[in-house]
Amino acid sequence: QTGSANTNPSDSADDEYITSVSIGTPAQVLPLDFDTGSSDLWVFSSETPKSSASGHTLYSPSKSSTAKKLSGSTWSIEYGDKSSSSGDVYTDVVTIGGFSVKTQAVESATKVSTQFVQDTVISGLVGLGFDVGNQVSPRPQKTWFSNAANSLAEPLFTADLRHQETGSYNFGFIDTSLAKGTIGYTPADGSEGYWGFTATGYSVGGAKLNRNSITGIADTGTTLLLLPDNIVDAYYNNVESAQYDDSQEGVVFDCSEDLPSFSFGVGGQTITISGDLLNLTPIEEGSSTCFGGLQSSADIGINIFGDVALKAALVVFDLGNERLGWAQK
Ligand SMILES: CN(C)c1ccc(C(=O)NN)cc1
Q1: The whole model's pTM is what?
Q2: Which residue among the candidates 33, 35, 88, 92 is catalytic per the annotation?
Q3: What is 255-321 written as a DSSP string?
Q4: Alpha-helical segments (H) within the chain
Q5: 161-173: average pLDDT
Q6: Active-site residue identified among 33, 88, 219, 307
Q7: Coil, helix or strand for 115?
Q8: Which residue CA neighbors atom 12 of ligand 1 most closely?
Q9: What's the gap in Å between 211 CA and the centre of ligand 1?
Q10: Ligand 1 centre and the CA of 305: distance in Å?
Q11: Which residues pair with 92 in a beta bridge?
Q12: Is 114 a pocket residue for ligand 1 (Cβ < 6 Å)?
């Protein structure tokens, strides 16, 4: 068996990617953010305070004949950007891309931070990280993919995120036609719950790869490519108008400037992110100052290959072989 779901950028900056997920009987369809950087499936629900829930599509367990309360279980999660949510837990049928998991832990939010309240284009997250990262207590729950893996044709999924166009999450199969290059594989370290890996080097503007290990995570739930300062500086030294903007908390530059590409080595392949993909968006509507897709990871303590990097590739999240595959797109 397999599953295939379309995913769409949430806005003109490709801030997030939205995928429709069906929960319960009859089906309640919610727009969710697939997140390989976390391991909880949580949703805005009938239990979310009305003032926080306004504008969001809600899951109502009381209206689902297959919903069951997971008594005594609660959850609480905080993300890298300090956003957070918490609540209680149901089990219900969850269908993604035509593949159904009958008894999936659906974490219902009784509290959500302002970042989520304001982000009305999504009604929750689908964690696609490793089960060790699940935040349900007293008994951690499995992710949707972990529950599905044994029934899928192959225990893997792929992410094909695109700039301003529809992409896909495929489960149980690899559609190699989505890629231009060969898929290069490298070991994945799931011990922290993330899809951790090590890139072998980087280059700016098509130059020869500087060999240096960059350990980070492949995170569909993070917008930016976040790397060490020495690499960020090496890149922006090639962007004449680049400067650090305190209010924006990142490097900005003239939108009219042609940006160099940025490449990284992984699994024996080189993934090249075009300059266009590295110009994320004007800092404000109509501004001629643009915000960079590559920013520093110094304040986070972990390097994150977020959507800016993932958009340049077809990425294979191979649980069965504990490895990540990358192919140029
Ligand atoms: C506030 N929102 C929508 C978030 C979504 C995802 C994340 C995240 O760190 N994922 N790895 C943080 C915040």
Answers
A1: 0.98
A2: 35
A3: TTSPPPPEEEEETTEEEEE-GGGGEEEESSTT-SEEEESEEE-TTTTSEEE-HHHHTTEEEEEETTT
A4: 50-53, 114-118, 144-149, 229-236, 307-310
A5: 98
A6: 219
A7: helix
A8: 79
A9: 31
A10: 14
A11: 104
A12: no
